[in-house]
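In response to the reviewer comment on reproducibility (Comment 2.3), we provide here a single inverse folding case reported in full, input and output, so that an independent group could reproduce the run without further information from us. The structure tokens appear first.
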């Protein structure tokens, strides 16, 4: 969805949906739902600190208009350095009840919505999905390999809306998802002689859940409102890997389980003081629990190393105030301040954001923005046990501070006519206080981390920068067709602990997207639709270090030349997709075929 926006790239392939914004790691993205911060909402999630996965837990049928920010985002959004994905669930229709069923390669989906009674203004919206990979594998439609387990997932989403006459609107929302996959070892030692990988097994299991209550109240006069959200969230990632022994018993080389239960509270007050002043303020507090365990077998000493073994409680709180001032009919200034506290190490951070928009005329507007933002690492990164010279293992990274980012943007938005618009934006991001290796002979920096936990001492001395130019040309859907073209040219660098500057892993240099679609109407009343949609993506390759051939030959394994870290590009990524659908609309039902 958002991968078509200017400045946004996605990791190639259909197995991951990480969102890379302006050369930043996907770890800098913040996910929110109904105003609260949520754990990674993806099936087969990346791992510790990751924000992507394979399939979204939340069906698109559940979503209303959502907000996506790529730089200098408003003050109410803390704990992010690259971007914000703020999702909103739509409210079910009242009155007549509707039912939907969808069968596809990825999964089977059921959806129902409507009012509780014909005259009630209260409504429900429920959606359930179950993956079909297992069924398709059994009947031979897809080949998962001889010993691969089918990726199985299921999820449930729901929203119940209860408006009242004088007490505001109450909503209950629920999101829950589970996914698992892996590789199954072959219990036949004779086959191991020709292919030792057949002894290998792997299992991963992911769970996430969100359950919340939201209350919205508009005060008399319709100028001031307050929104309160209280929700519980849960995330669990479990992974095991190993080989079968001669007696076919499992030998676990790696095992980890990370669990994060939490309670989230969010209160936001919005007040239109007069025609020129709008005030927005809020308070968020989140008690965070954690239960973490990770061990791997050390063949050098013949026993397991425990890398993480911690449980307990932490917390995070945030307060913000934002003032929007309209000088006159055209110029508009927005100022915002955020206080951000991470209780695990009692760190206080103050961020500020300001944005100026100048409407030149009905067609042209200019904008300039500046924001300072910060992002905490995953709790497992603070709790990771690092070996010490005396042989002890301790969480020496517990006091690592937030990574920081200063964003500056300047842009122009021009409406050619009612159908066409052109938007440009230039930006510069300075990254500092980034966690990096304390060993000054290495090039390890959190700027390049997509997910995972550290295995060495870190210090907050890392810096980096991103700058670029983005162009969007858009033809809104009208007269049955639409066109969207976006492109971005950018550069992304970081300073390694060695003191040298290198490309970041995500410095692909450029990305371009072209989307187009056309609808054709049929039938006596033009009630049926045949549509075609297409998308073309061209992106530079992500970075990789060249191979040190001499050391590779000596060690009989691939050794990269870290003195030329990320000097080379992987091949450019080009992808073209085209799809079609046919929808038949009847008085009481409709059905659609996609391909």
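Designed residues, in position order:
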């Amino acid at each position: 969805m958002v991968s078509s926006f200017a400045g946004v790239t996605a990791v190639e392939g259909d197995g991951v949906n990480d969102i890379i914004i302006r050369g930043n790691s996907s770890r800098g993205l913040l996910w929110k739902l109904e105003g609260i911060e949520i754990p990674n909402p993806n099936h087969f999630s990346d791992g510790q600190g990751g924000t992507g996965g394979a399939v979204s837990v939340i069906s698109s049928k559940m979503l209303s208009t959502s907000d996506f920010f790529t730089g200098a985002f408003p003050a109410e959004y803390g704990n992010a350095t690259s971007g914000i994905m703020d999702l909103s669930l739509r409210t079910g229709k009242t009155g007549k009840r509707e039912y939907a069923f969808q069968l596809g390669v990825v999964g089977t989906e059921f959806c129902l919505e409507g009012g509780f009674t014909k005259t009630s203004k209260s409504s429900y919206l429920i959606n359930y999905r179950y993956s079909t990979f297992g069924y398709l594998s059994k009947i031979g439609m897809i080949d998962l390999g001889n010993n691969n387990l089918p990726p199985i997932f299921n999820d449930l989403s729901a929203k119940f809306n209860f408006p009242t006459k004088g007490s505001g609107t109450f909503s209950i929302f629920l999101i829950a998802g589970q996914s698992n996959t892996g590789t199954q070892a072959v219990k036949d030692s004779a086959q191991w002689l020709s292919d030792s990988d057949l002894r290998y097994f792997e299992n991963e299991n992911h769970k996430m859940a969100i359950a919340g209550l939201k209350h919205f109240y508009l005060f008399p006069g319709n100028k001031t409102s307050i929104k309160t959200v209280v929700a519980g969230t849960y995330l669990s990632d479990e992974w095991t890997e190993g080989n079968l022994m001669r007696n076919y018993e499992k030998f676990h080389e790696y095992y980890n389980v990370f669990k994060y239960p939490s309670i989230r509270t969010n209160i936001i007050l919005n007040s239109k003081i007069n025609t020129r002043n709008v005030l927005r303020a809020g308070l968020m507090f989140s008690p965070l629990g954690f239960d973490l365990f990770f061990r791997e077998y050390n063949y050098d000493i013949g026993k397991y190393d425990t890398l993480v073994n911690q449980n307990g409680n932490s917390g995070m709180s945030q307060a913000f105030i934002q003032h929007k001032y309209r000088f006159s009919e055209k110029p508009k200034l927005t100022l915002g301040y955020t206080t951000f506290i991470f209780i695990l190490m009692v760190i206080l951070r103050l961020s500020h954001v300001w944005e100026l928009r100048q409407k030149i005329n009905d067609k042209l507007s200019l904008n300039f923005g500046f924001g300072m933002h910060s992002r905490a690492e995953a709790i497992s990164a603070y709790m990771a046990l690092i070996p010490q010279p005396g042989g002890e293992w301790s969480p020496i990274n517990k006091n690592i501070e937030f990574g920081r980012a200063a964003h500056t943007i300047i842009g122009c938005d021009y409406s050619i006519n009612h159908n066409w618009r052109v938007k440009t934006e230039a930006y510069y991001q300075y990254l500092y206080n980034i966690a990096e290796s304390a060993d000054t002979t290495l090039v390890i920096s959190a700027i390049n981390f997509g997910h995972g936990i550290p295995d060495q001492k870190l210090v907050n001395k890392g810096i980096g920068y991103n700058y670029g130019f983005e162009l969007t040309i858009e033809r809104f859907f009208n007269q049955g067709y639409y066109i969207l073209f976006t492109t971005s040219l950018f550069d992304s660098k970081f300073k390694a602990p060695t003191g040298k500057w290198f490309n970041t892993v995500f410095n692909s240099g450029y990305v371009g997207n072209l989307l187009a679609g056309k609808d054709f109407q049929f039938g006596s009343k033009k009630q049926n639709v045949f549509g075609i949609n297409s998308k073309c993506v061209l992106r530079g390759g992500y970075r990789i270090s060249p191979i040190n051939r001499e050391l590779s030959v000596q060690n009989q394994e691939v050794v990269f030349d870290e003195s030329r870290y990320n000097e080379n590009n992987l091949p450019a990524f080009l992808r073209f997709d085209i799809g079609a659908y046919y929808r038949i609309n009847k008085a009481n039902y409709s059905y659609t075929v996609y391909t």
